[in-house]
Design a protein that fits this description.
The chain is of the alpha+beta class and 322 residues long. The protein is built from 14 helices and 8 strands. It has a 6-stranded antiparallel β-sheet with strand order 5-4-3-2-6-7. It starts with a strand and ends with a helix.
């Protein structure tokens, strides 16, 4: 079994995959490609993609491949600046929760050579990646709304990243097959959005559209906030504290005694999360200052909590080095 090689991948890399499932085989036959799915690498150990569960993130250490030729990674030949890469990844993050559309994916067959825009407020794998790059000013295909995974492969703007898969050891395989907290997060997010669609009667697909709805219809604030609190979304962070106490507790950290390379990776990951969450905190604080809705207040409190949590991680790792 094989895993994506996080040591070689960078944010913004495109990962094309093929699996043995019937759907994957059917897509490969339809598109005349060796690959059936596209994902966007957004952070160390994390990809965002669109599948039957909608747009969601996934831990790369939980994505197993049976052979080393079942995935390739692509990277822009001319590397853009950090802000551009951030914009690519932020676009994908903002789409989390958006539902998957089989009809829209199938429509690529007739529309990919046209200039037709998306017909529905939905996503599929190659659309998500292509739109993320177009949003950041680096269009890869003629029509980002309708394209195949193979279209992302067959462009001169990208080059292969060699050895994007590596052999997985027994412990890694067991971990990959164990229950995933991110699956819980995906389920909670999708359920929350479904309930907000039901309350509002609007086609709300992601957090940005939740905000837009509340700005237009502030009378929904009480019911939206109640669903947010009931969903468990505000407490998802507790899963990592429970699953990885060594990241947050002095005693647990001393017992685990992680090596220096893991501590450095933890600091880097936590700092990147803080940078991202600061932006979200600022946005919700600004929204609350203009329109003091409880939903905005609760969301701001969540990002403030997440920032403090990751500061704890950094402090613990750095104290160990000191």
């Amino acid at each position: 079994m094989y895993l994506l090689n996080d040591a070689l991948l960078r944010p913004g890399d495109i990962v094309l995959t093929a699996q043995d499932a019937k759907v994957s085989k059917a897509i490969r036959r339809l598109t005349g490609s060796s690959f059936s799915h596209a994902m966007l690498y957004v952070d160390e150990g994390s990809v965002i993609h669109s599948d039957q569960q909608g747009v969601h993130s996934q831990n790369t250490q939980r994505v197993l491949f049976e052979a080393p030729d079942l995935a390739i990674a692509l990277r822009l030949v001319k590397q853009p600046d950090r802000e551009t890469i951030q914009n690519i990844c932020d676009y994908a993050r903002a789409a989390i929760g958006t539902q998957y559309s089989v009809p829209e994916a199938i429509a690529s067959r007739s529309r990919r050579r046209s200039d037709s825009g998306a017909r529905a407020n939905r996503q599929f794998c190659s659309r998500l990646v292509a739109e993320a790059y177009s949003y950041a000013g680096h269009p890869l295909v003629s029509n980002a709304s309708y394209c195949y995974p193979t279209d992302l492969h067959n462009v001169d703007l990208v080059a292969h990243v060699p050895n994007c898969l590596r052999k997985a050891n027994k412990i890694e395989i067991e971990f990959a097959k164990s229950p995933s907290p991110i699956q819980v997060q995906t389920r909670v997010t999708n359920t929350l959005l479904e309930s907000l669609r039901s309350i509002s009667g609007e086609d709300i697909q992601n957090e940005e559209q939740v905000v837009a709805c509340l700005l237009r219809r502030p009378e929904l604030d009480s019911s939206f906030t109640a669903r947010l609190e009931e969903s468990g979304y505000l407490d998802l962070w507790r899963m990592d504290v429970k699953a990885n106490p060594w990241r947050y507790s002095d005693a647990e950290f001393l017992a685990a005694a992680p090596p220096i390379e893991i501590r450095l990776r933890e600091v880097k990951s936590a700092q990147e999360s803080i940078d991202r969450f600061r932006g979200m905190l600022h946005n919700y604080q600004q929204l609350h200052s203009k329109l003091p809705l409880r939903y905005f207040e609760a969301s701001a409190a969540l990002y403030k909590q997440l920032i403090e949590l990751h500061r704890m991680r950094i402090s613990l790792m750095q104290r160990a080095d000191a």
